[in-house]
Amino acid sequence: MKPIAPSARLAEVRYEIRGALARRARDMEAAGTPIVHLNIGNPGRFGFRAPAHLVDAIPAHLTHSDGYCQEQGIDEAREAIVARQHARGVADVDVDRVFIGNGVSELIDISLRALLGPGDEVLLPSPDYPLWSASTVLNGGRPRYYHCAAANDHLPDPEEMERLITPRTRAIVLINPNNPTGAVYPRALLERIVTLAARHDLLLLSDEIYDEIVYDDARFEPLAPLAGEVPCLSFSGLSKVHRACGFRIGWMSLSGDRRRTAQLRDALQLLSALRLCANVPAQWAVRAALEGPDTIGPLLRPGGRLHAARQAVLNGVAASRHLQLVAPRGALYAFPAVRADTLPTFDDSEFALRLLEEEGVLLAPGSSFNVEASRHLRLTLLPEPDTLRDVFARIERVLDRMSE
Ligand code: PLP
Prior knowledge:
38% of the residues lie in helices and 14% in strands. The protein is built from 14 helices and 14 strands. α5 links the parallel β3 (121-126) and β4 (142-147).
């Protein structure tokens, strides 16, 4: 009998952050080896709790949350998202242009499904957050990668972006602040990308899930206020800034010329309706999150846990013979690279496997993020600073052994 073959589209789809390496770590743990997990940006795993005012907002409404809600989300949450966008200077967002999903993950898929036909192209960053590439492929599209190289502080080059545009290009995806690199895009760069989108009739898709997570003097600039009439979908949610990724709540808001975006808006509503609605009880945390106190800022400033974790990573790299790093300016990751002068031939996947098997540390090799021939490693800044200090000693030991 013939095997049941999965869709051929899956041949191009990878999500290595939770792939073979992570499964190997699970097996090792089951066999009694303690593993330090640095591969996933899951705040709950590192002792962070969702702020109490988010948690408390849910039970008060549980008795009214047993039915499906409107496909785009409950009014109270969408109104709070509209108010946030107005405060940022995006006056043309209203509740009809806001969509709440089971995490930004679901909305990435819905937005690309609404947009793409077979063979349509999407400009994506390399490295990327791999769901963007996977969703592009699963919805019949083709990723075209613009490079965000360490030599350019992991920033995109709008001239390269423009060279990649073809008659099939439909959209530009930006991840800002960036996962995995920690880059935060300056306003002048964003303005150039908006100009490109305007010139070539492209939709802007701005993944801003780390919007309030910036370090030192870095400043996050939301794209929608700069995009003005240029059609733009902006994404954010509860998972990172509010440390509530288990709630599975994200949102996207549509801005720009109403005539040009009317059909897209209707398509997003239709696709939202097909999956009925997002988890209703957790939507009650949205207004609490957006109207409540700033709980992430204190973690990012001197004395805060994420500030100290980032410093531990910077110190670990500075003390290393093998590593170099463009200091992350935002988000929850560092993306160091192994220097070519101490290790001329380096395979990031082989290194990640050795680090796991020899030192019990799980991180994501750079090649998990759609980069060719990566010399990078991605680790999350969420652990305790002491754990990170210890991890750098273990990384150095493996790199020393590889360079012998
Ligand atoms: N976008 C980026 C850039 C991410 O890093 C993540 C999760 O790590 C997501 C989207 C998915 O977030 P959510 O938990 O809202 O589905």
